[in-house]
């Protein structure tokens, strides 16, 4: 209908006397309306394929599926283009079909920009990719009186196998992080356990040292030896009473009923050890003192 009105300028509807007003359209719009077929069919080229288009048996062009990244991954990009016509005269007479020209320019620019990036960078550098496409379009569309305001990538589709490999890569990265975190947790737990055990051993050693120091101070006081002798005698009797419970144990001395004799023997042993202790300390002191006698030189027999 638009094509008929553009050509006639004014016409009469069939079976009607009403006159159709004249439509003021540009020559570019007339050419676009005259070229647009009424039976338009839209077909999509599948992945990993290319279609050869022939018209009346003659080669016309090749339809490729989509763009290819730097690492040879086929991509399908769905973008949104925002345009503004600044000069209607240039848009009408500077190019035959400005909308088609800008769309084709955006597609070719997008393919060239994607060819410079790998698949990972395409997802990360979407903003820079959009700005580069807008800059390239504006350089060519200034002569057409058209300004590209924005270009936004709406969707990025990859082949199914590439998508599966990307999913596997993400899962492997997640497992790696989980393993690293688990190993770090095990390491920190081991360090904490070792530090706790070391602190426990140190605390036990300090407590034992303090107990020995207190015992030494107690023995140094008046009647300290008598108290120590009594404590040793009690431990002696307790040890023998525990040994007497076993049927296959021989006790020396065999007379376990003489408790007073056992106590006397234990106190005698302690007194003997107490008397020998100063002698041992004096011998150690003499041994540690340097000798003033000159060394004796031995001569070999001739």
UniProtKB/TrEMBL annotation:
Gene3D superfamilies: Band 7 domain
Cited Pfam families: Band_7 (PF01145), Band_7_C (PF16200)
Cell compartments where the protein resides: Mitochondrion
Primary subcellular site in the record, as a coarse category: mitochondrion
GO biological process, one term: mitochondrion organization
Domain Band: 40-170
GO cellular component, one term: mitochondrion
Region of interest: Disordered: 275-302
Keywords: Mitochondrion
CDD domains: SPFH_paraslipin
Keyword Mitochondrion: yes
Family: Belongs to the band 7/mec-2 family.
PANTHER family per UniProt: STOMATIN-LIKE PROTEIN 2, MITOCHONDRIAL (PTHR43327)
This protein's name: Podocin
Organism name: Etheostoma spectabile
């Amino acid at each position: 209908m638009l094509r008929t009105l553009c050509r006639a300028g004014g016409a009469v509807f069939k079976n009607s006397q009403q006159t159709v007003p004249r439509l003021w359209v540009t020559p570019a719009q007339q050419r676009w309306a005259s070229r647009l077929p009424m039976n338009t069919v839209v077909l999509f080229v599948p992945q990993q394929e290319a279609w050869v288009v022939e018209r009346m048996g003659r080669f016309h062009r090749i339809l490729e599926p989509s763009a290819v990244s730097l690492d040879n991954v086929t991509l399908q990009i769905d973008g949104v283009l925002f345009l503004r016509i600044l000069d209607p005269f240039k848009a009408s007479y500077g190019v035959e079909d400005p909308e088609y020209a800008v769309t084709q320019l955006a597609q070719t620019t997008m393919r060239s920009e994607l060819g410079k990036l790998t698949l990972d960078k395409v997802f990360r550098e979407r903003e820079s990719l959009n700005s580069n496409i807008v800059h390239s379009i504006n350089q060519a569309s200034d002569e057409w009186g058209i300004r590209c305001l924005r270009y936004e990538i709406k969707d990025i589709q990859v082949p199914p196998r590439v998508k599966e490999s990307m999913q596997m890569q993400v899962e492997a990265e997640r497992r790696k992080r989980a393993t690293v975190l688990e190993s770090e947790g095990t390491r920190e737990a081991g360090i904490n356990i070792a530090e706790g055990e070391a602190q426990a051993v140190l605390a036990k050693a300090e407590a034992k040292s303090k107990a020995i120091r207190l015992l030494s101070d107690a023995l140094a006081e008046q009647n300290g030896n008598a108290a120590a002798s009594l404590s040793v005698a009690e431990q002696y009797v307790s040890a023998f009473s525990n040994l007497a419970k076993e049927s296959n144990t021989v006790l020396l001395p065999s007379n376990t009923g003489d408790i007073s004799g056992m106590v006397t023997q234990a106190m005698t042993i302690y007194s003997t050890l107490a008397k020998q202790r100063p002698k041992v300390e004096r011998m150690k002191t003499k041994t540690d003192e340097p000798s003033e006698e000159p060394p004796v030189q031995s001569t070999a027999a001739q």
